[in-house]
C-alpha cells in the first residue's frame, strides 16, 4: 500500500524523522511522574524502527535517511533482542543483518544527551550516526539547552563522541 511512497522517498534520498506518538496507554501510568513522554514515546519510536528493520523495508529502501528521535528511545537496548528473536519468530533476516540495519539509522540527541546514554550510543553506532536535537519548542528552558549542548560538545572531547 505504501510502497510507492517508500520508493519516492528512496529515489529522493529523503531524510525521514521518526518520533514516537504521544498516545495514552490503556493502562494507567506507573506513576504520576512517569507519563507518556517518559514511558511510552521511547517504545513507540522503537516499534517503528523495529518494524522497518524486520519487515525488510530498511534494507529495501537504503537511500532513505531515517532519524530516530531521542537516541531511538529504547531502540539501542532492544535491537539485540530483536536480532536474537526475530529469526525464531519467522524473519528471513539473520541476526547480523538485523543489527546491521539498526545501525544504519541516525539518532538525535533530544532529551538524551546524558553522558551515559552518549557513551552507550558510541558503543552501538559510533558518533557518525548521532545528530543534534533539542525537542525545541517542547523543552525550551535555557538550562535544558545548555545541558544538551554541553554534553554533546563534551562527548566529542572525552572520547565517546
Strand percentage lies at 5-15%
What's the CATH architecture?
Answer: Alpha-Beta Barrel
Largest sheet: 4 strands, parallel
CATH class: Alpha Beta
The strands making up the biggest β-sheet line up spatially as: 1-2-3-4
Write the layout of secondary structure elements.
Elements: H1 3-11, E1 15-18, H2 36-39, H3 41-54, H4 57-60, E2 65-68, H5 75-86, H6 95-102, E3 106-108, H7 115-124, E4 130-131, H8 142-157
Parallel strand pairs: 1-2, 2-3, 3-4
Written account of the structure:
- The chain has helices at residues 3-11, 36-39, 41-54, 57-60, 75-86, 95-102, 115-124, 142-157; strands at residues 15-18, 65-68, 106-108, 130-131.
- The protein has 161 residues and is an alpha/beta fold.
- The chain has one domain: Alpha-Beta Barrel (TIM Barrel), CATH 3.20.20.140.
- The longest helix is centred in the C-terminal third of the chain and has 16 residues, at 142-157.
- 29% of the residues are buried.
Task: Give me some keywords for this one.
single chain; 4-stranded parallel beta sheet; 8 helices; TIM Barrel; 161 residues; 4 strands; alpha/beta
